[in-house]
Amino acid sequence: GDVPGHANSAMDGYAVRTADIPDRGEAILTVVQRITAGSAGEALAPGEAARIFTGAPIPEGADAIAIQENCRREGDKVIVPAPLAAGTFVRPRGNDIRAGDVVIAEGARIRPQEMGAIASLGADTVEVRRRIRVAILATGDELREPGEDLAPGQIYNSNRFTLIGLLERAGCDIVDLGVVADRIDATCDALRTGASRADVLITTGGVSVGEEDHIRHAVESMGEIFIRKVAVRPGKPIVHGRIEQCDLIGLPGNPVSTLVGFCLFVRPFLLCRSGVDAARAFPMPIPVPADFAWPVAQSRREFARARLIPSQGNSPTGPDMPRAEIHPRQGSDVLSAATWAGGLVEIPEGRTLVPGDMVLYHSFGDLLD
Length: 369
Prior knowledge:
This protein is an alpha/beta fold. The chain contains 8 helices and 22 strands. Strand 16 and strand 17 (about 245-250) form a beta hairpin.
């Protein structure tokens, strides 16, 4: 049905008939009722007004609201200044939603505003897809959990916590499979377990071409691989395959590669797999001027850790656009650069830049929403 289901007042004031209001001067009307939100008034006769409050239904016969600060009250009379046009401060029936409107299309994510819109329709239940179940698995004999002591050559398993945070923000159910040793038999067993428990299995590490990188070989032995690498930096050795009914995505072990690979490839994949419309799964970057130079063209598309800084404010035509600066250390192991950054700057392959050139900026706010 219509939302709202009745015309209502947009302001505190007096509901009046504009036929009683002259073209100039003022009208003196008799206040015959008081209408609050949640109550229903009675029809107005000529020369009558109703004291009314925001959200209260418009009484029959009234067609405008004279706001209280423009009126003078004298006993049971109200003096309303002219002129006053029909429809002033009146929210018509169906002002928000009309009967027959599509309020939330199939493939939309349920955010707080969608929850409110559903409630405004009076619906106590809606049909949704279940949360996608994602298993995560790290590879590497060198990995230890935070709180443990590190031996020489060991590092903390930061990717586990990055992925958990990313998947929680994407609305997924998470199956944490821990760390698998750098052995082909252990890797196969872990992948088999993950594939049996989840819709999607995400691994970190073990996807390169080293002798101890077993993910690709393990997937090939029990399923198939569709993508072996992508022409981006960081994150080149990304793997996409399938084991029975489970999709597998192998991310590189370097922490920035895990983060960037998830933002660019995994999150859109998970959203589409969850039923989100593809157009909504890929946020649009914004063009901004570069505040840096990129003197050497690269063979792969670069997604540099960057943030926006205020303009210098000296444009003769108006406010300048914010500019993008990049972190001085762009290594795929420098996770601190990602905590400094507000997003990613996209630098096309084969391109050099000088300050002022336009680049595409991907905000983490959009990439992680």
